[in-house]
Amino acid sequence: MLNNDVEKLWELQQVLSELADREKQLNIKPESFADVDREYQTANEEMQRLQESLDTMAKERRLVDGELADQQELLKKYQGTLMQVKNQQQYAAAWKEIDATRKHVKELEDSVLKFMTDAEGVQKELDDRKAGFDDLKSRYDDAHDAWQHSLGDLRSEIETLRKKQEQIEAGLAEPLKREFWRIAKQRGGIAVVRIVGDTCSACRTRVRPALSQQMKRGDLIHCEGCARILYMERPAS
Questions:
Q1: Nearest residue to 75 (alpha-carbon basis) of 57, 59, 97
Q2: Does the structural domain 29-153 have CATH classification 1.10.150?
Q3: Residue ranges of E strands in the chain
Q4: Distance between CA atoms of 186 and 41, rounded to whole angstroms?
Q5: Contact 94/81 with Cβ under 8 angstroms?
């Protein structure tokens, strides 16, 4: 009975290995799609970068606009104060404040002008990229649809393998199934390995003759090197 269980475990391992291979293939982009995908992702990232740059410029300009408005109000205040001075000392102090504020206002106005010029350049670059994006998006969608359509057979194979996995597991006793998955989790998904010659095909540890005899009697044997379950093929009848 136990020997039959080992056969089932080996079959389960084979199914799981095939399933892992098919699922890996499912995520591999064919070169026909990978090329346009790279171009599409690069264009998207570049447009996002340009838009973020515009957003940052707009935010910084709003701050400068606010400061400019404050400085312009301050300049008006100083100019009004100039009309109320009573001596030469106050007059000189007022003009000093006015001159410093005018210089600051000029610097802020230059900053606003630079923001406008820079933003126009970035906006033009963004508009140019958007102009050609529709064609790129169309090519991307066509290539993606063709790739997904080609995966139909692969998805069918995966579904069949999953059903087969469920059927095999349904025929295993719970303790045996838990043992299988415990080892699989610890050993990279490989819980059962075949003996090749007289060695474990996973870790190349030699299987002692006494263990081989136990396996022939139907005992469940673990490799002394990697602790995986060992499977010995039945002689051809």
A1: 97
A2: no
A3: 192-196, 199-200, 229-231
A4: 37
A5: yes
The Cβ-side half-sphere exposure at 182, using a 13 Å CA radius, reads 9
Average confidence score pLDDT of the chain: 92
CA distance 169 to 158: 16
Fold of 2-24+163-231: Helix Hairpins (1.10.287)
Cα atoms found within 13 Å of the Cα of residue 75, Cβ hemisphere only: 14
CA–CA gap between residue 121 and residue 56 (Å, rounded): 14
Question: pTM score > 0.90 for this model?
Answer: no
Same fold flag, 2-24+163-231 and 29-153? yes
- Contact criterion met (CB below 8 Å) for 5 and 155: no
The angle at the Cα of 47, spanning 42 to 48, to the nearest 5 degrees, equals: 95
**Of 14, 128, 108, nearest in space to 60 by CA:** 108
pLDDT of residue 152: 86
- Can you give the residue ranges of every domain in the chain? 2-24+163-231, 29-153
Helix axes 152-170, 88-150, angle to 10 degrees: 70
